[in-house]
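Final report, closing paragraph on structural work. Over the funding period we assembled a curated collection of sequence-structure pairs, and we close with a single example.
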Amino acid sequence: MWVWEHHLMSPPDWRRAARLALPADAQLTGFSRLQELGLDEGPVFPLHFVVARDHHVRIDGITLHRTDRMPPLDDVGVTPAAAFIAVCAESTVMTAACIGDWLLHRRHMGLAEVRELAQHERWRAGAVEALWIGRYLDAAARSIAESRWRMRLAFAGLPAPAVNAPILDRSGAQVAIGDLAYLRWRTVAEYEGEQHQRDRAQYLTDITRYGDFRDLGLDYVQLTRETPAVNGVLAVYRALRANGYAGPPPAFGARWRSLGAPLSRVARSGAWSTHQAADHVDGAPQDRAIG
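Its predicted structure, as stored:
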């Protein structure tokens, strides 16, 4: 492939170039396949492709995997569900959860689809890991940042929040969406992304939303990219305690540290049984009025 010497190659350009350099039956997989969907997580290189035969090729920046049987395909490469399973084989617990949420929320895959594929092909790299992390995924998370914070809260031992829960006033009208809501304890954790600082309209919307929270007697904790993970979890815990939560304080031991560990190691260790998965234990009906 030849390009103009001043052309700055983008990740999509590199993926297109790789297709031209590889055999026609090589299919995009792993992080490369998911980045084709717009995912901004994981390494861009090496580019990942797979063939269902014994074919060897050495090209800088490309990894060509070989498999006995090709996973399900679509018109781009392997399906997003199959690519997610491949990613689970080489991701941390946190990364796999964030990517899984991202794919589910955008309907690029379904949880039942992942489970069926992983159970049917348990021999495939990432299948056991995908089944394990599937218990912790939440399609309601709209952003990677929301996924990170909900996983931190759950893996520190706090109740799992309801993600993007509608907040209703006394008349039953929706006044806001709570990023990470504990309605039983009248507490909401809100992630403030960069757009909240740059966008004047978003800034004014935030002021109104927080005023609504105060009017309804809701405590709220503001989290940012710069908020240290432990500090953010402790801030949410203090707000919960102030509003009647009587459960144990967060713990920052082995389970917490596992968020940064390879998913393959954690999943195959048998750590934490299914009943400890991040269920919504808030218990407050999502359509209930606050106040």
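The chain has a mean pLDDT of 90. The CA atoms of residues 101 and 139 lie 5 Å apart. We thank the funder for supporting this effort.
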